Amino acid sequence: MKKNSLWLCGLVVLLLLGLAGCAKKQAQAPQPPSPANKNLILSSTTDVQDTGLMDVLIPMFQTQTGYVVKPIYNGSGQAIALGAKGEADVLITHAPSAEQPDVANGDFINYQLLMHNSYVIVGPPDDPAKIKGLSATDALKKIAAAKAVFVSRGDNSGTNIEEKALWKQAGITPNGSWYLNAGQGMAPTLLLASQKTGYTLTDLSTYLAQQKNLQLDILVQGGKALTNIYHVMQVNPAKFSKVNTDGAKAFEDFMLSPATQKVIADFGKDKYGQPLYYADAGNIATGGQ
Amino acid sequence: MSVIGDGMIQAGRLLISGDPEVLRITWRTLQITGTATLISVVIGVPVGVTLALRKVFGRWLMVSAVNFGMGLPPVVVGLFVWLLLFRYGPLGFLDLLYTPGAMIIAEVIIAFPVVAGFTLAAIQAINPKMRFQILALGANRWQFLWLLLREARLGLLAAVIAGFGSAISELGAAMMVGGNIEGLTRVLTTTIDQEVSMGDFVLAIALSVILLLLTFFVTAILTWYQQHRRQPQ
Q1: A 61-80 → B contacts, CB under 8 A
Q2: Are the C-beta atoms of residues A275 and A204 closer than 8 Å to each other?
Q3: Number of folded domains in chain B?
Q4: Which of A140, A256, B46, B89 maximizes the CB count within 10 A of its CB?
Q5: 3-class DSSP state for residue A279?
Q6: Per the domain annotation, does B232 fall within a domain?
Q7: CB–CB of A233/A110 below 8 Å?
Q8: Is residue B233 assigned to a domain?
Q9: To probe the interface with A, which of B86, B97, B197, B202 has the most A CB atoms within 10 Å?
Q10: Does A23 lie at the interface with B, CB-CB under 8 angstroms?
Q11: Inter-CA distances, A252 with A90, A101, A113, B29, B56, Å
Q12: Alpha carbons A106 and A108: distance in angstroms, whole number
């Protein structure tokens, strides 16, 4: 009995010692400058996280400015809704049609073009609906006519809003057992489409990051209709007093600075052989690539 | 299948090399779920004991509430805690959203009914004659409670184990109120979810193996304690 207790104590002590060791290592990080209100909530679309872009940019920003960014990733629809409630300080989203009403009514200020890439329609390599090389709207028409499986994000994200706009342009209201509503992020939706041998609309960057797990090929790409545009904007402190104005401004300035824009433009080149994003600060985005 | 195999190998590699990021996330997981379990025990055991012993008014309804609480959908708990802690929400002044504190609150709400429910069952399983016997031997109130808890310790440890299990396995609520923020609220479950989204299934499996090992290790210590203390000497 006593022997056993001793054993237990020994184990616990060892465990604590090990953990204390880890804690010490953690405390040795260099100390950056220290603003008055350090906490900065970024409400952002998920795909900039899923590609790993934010894992590069946020540490850079934090070291340069001393702010602590709390990035909250959701579909653009929800990301915008959080900002419009004053629950975030700064936003990165890619659904211009959903952003603009909130810019117009003054929820968001300093609405700036950040970067763009493109949407693509991906599908099974044997392409049962024969959409390869078509325009986006023609491709959707053929998918609907063939009743081929199409997986929709169904989550009011930027990609989902773009998809709905494309169906509208094609003059089709998609429904039926071939049209699946995933209600999930881009990566799970791609995986679902791959497992169900279906088609889906995706941003190119998430597709490239996920490609090794998918049996999906790019079938439709290019054209102005498939341009995916990202904006950065601040939540209006005149409307929401709890907003970290200085932090939001610092973050937006950082994102639009030439140095950061260069990092964005180069991001992913080494891993995928092509850039994942095209830096746009100060430009008006023009057609796809 | 090769993903699972590769994941196991990578788990071994991460553990042997002592990858600092993985160690930090594991330690944070242990801190947050450990605190949540502790608070759940501090709240849940007295609630369970009271409901088992006292003929309080509306007892039946309260016991039902505890049993209902044992099956609370974590995503609902997460949603409520999230909305309550909003900057402009009722508890926004606490400034707790997207902190480990918020995760602990959500996990306590999920885990403490489990602890209370198990405690209630453990105390009620004691032969009522035992209670009279303890009192007949002249025990005061605190001695009575202490002896009763000692008698029910098998069930009480099961309560702690179950509470810890529901706290450490939490994903939905942890993601919502914690935000999976690197260096602050990123725990093993939320990291696994993120790695799946980022397409790194091998790392996701490796972290899953580490989460399972951690859960097994803690549970094994508690179980060892439970089983070896069974016969008072």
Answers
A1: 68, 70-73
A2: no
A3: 1
A4: A140
A5: strand
A6: no
A7: yes
A8: no
A9: B197
A10: yes
A11: 8, 20, 11, 32, 58
A12: 5
| Domain of B26, in residue numbers | 2-227
User: A22, B198: Cβ pair inside 8 Å?
Assistant: no
Question: Is residue B195 assigned to a domain?
Answer: yes
A124 in B contact zone (CB under 8 Å): no
Mean pLDDT by 10 residues, chain B (233 residues): 87 90 95 97 96 87 94 94 94 94 97 96 90 87 90 92 95 94 94 90 93 95 81 52
- Do domains A39-116+229-279 and A118-226 share one topology? The answer is yes
Q: Is the pLDDT of residue A8 over 80?
A: no
* SS3 track for B95-163: CCCCCHHHHHHHHHHHHHHHHHHHHHHHHHCCCHHHHHHHHHCCCCHHHHHHHHHHHCHHHHHHHHHHH
Q: Least CA distance to B184: which residue of chain A?
A: A70
> Which positions 119-178 of B are in contact with A (Cβ < 8 Å)?
none
Q: Name the pLDDT band for A32 (thresholds 50, 70, 90).
A: low
- Report the complex ipTM: 0.80
**CATH assignment at residue B26:** 1.10.3720.10
Instruction: Write down the pTM of the prediction.
Output: 0.84
When CB atoms are compared, the residue of B24, B86, B180 closest to A87 is B86
**Chain A interface disruption, residue of B35, B198, B223, B224, most A CBs within 10 A:** B198
The pLDDT assigned to A16 comes to 44
pLDDT tens digits for range A54-112: 999 999 999 999 999 999 999 999 999 999 999 999 999 999 999 999 999 999 999 99
Q: Which residue is closest to B220 within chain A, CA to CA?
A: A8
Mean pLDDT confidence for A12-41: 60
Residue B36 belongs to some domain of the structure: yes
In this structure, which topology does domain A118-226 adopt according to CATH? Answer: D-Maltodextrin-Binding Protein; domain 2 (3.40.190)
The alpha-carbon gap from B64 to the nearest alpha carbon of chain A, in Å, equals 34
